[in-house]
Amino acid sequence: MCPTHPVSRRPRRGARDVAGAFRSTFGQTFDDRTLGQYASIEHNIAQVCAQLGVHPTAAALQAAAAHRYAFTRRTLTPSPDVLAALDALKCAGFRLGLLSNCGPDVPHRWRECPLAASIDVAVFSCQARQKKPAQALYQTA
Fold first, then answer.
1. Is residue 76 part of a domain?
2. N or C end of the chain, less CB within 10 A?
3. Full-model pTM
4. Is 1 inside any structural domain?
């Protein structure tokens, strides 16, 4: 054993297996998540954990949700070129809308997203309980 890299720092094989199972099962909830079957990302994470027979503490659940919200914040951060293009469209008089197939983490973080200031109407599938290409979703916007 190397003193600067003790074996105890490495995740146990069982922990890696659970993490992999969590990622896979969470991914399988995408359709339900985007159709509003989960009130919050915390609810989604708790349901996945229950399916796997894992019972996280409230603190662990909040930490997992914080990790997901951080991921969402990063994915909702556009490049400066995108913001400039949207601003040019707004200055030209266009009203801009967004239709997103997404889970509850996106609308939860939407107001802090730089895109929000450029979008006149945002419709989130998890709130509308319909996904693209449902015609009614487009009529909502």
1. yes
2. N
3. 0.77
4. no
User: How many domains is the chain partitioned into structurally?
Assistant: 1
Which domain range does residue 115 map to?
Answer: 11-141
Confirm whether 6 is domain-assigned: no
Could you tell me if residue 15 is inside a domain?
yes
DSSP calls for the chain: --TTS-GGGSPPHHHHHHHHHHHHHHHHTHHHHHTT-SSSHHHHHHHHHHHTT----HHHHHHHHHHHHHHHHHHT---HHHHHHHHHHHHTT---EEEE---THHHHHGGGSGGGGG-SEEEEHHHHT--TT-HHHHHH-
| Tens digit of each residue's pLDDT, the chain (141 residues) | 333 333 334 444 456 677 889 999 999 999 999 999 999 999 999 999 999 999 999 999 999 999 999 999 999 899 999 999 999 999 999 999 999 999 999 999 999 999 999 999 999 999 999 998 888 878 876
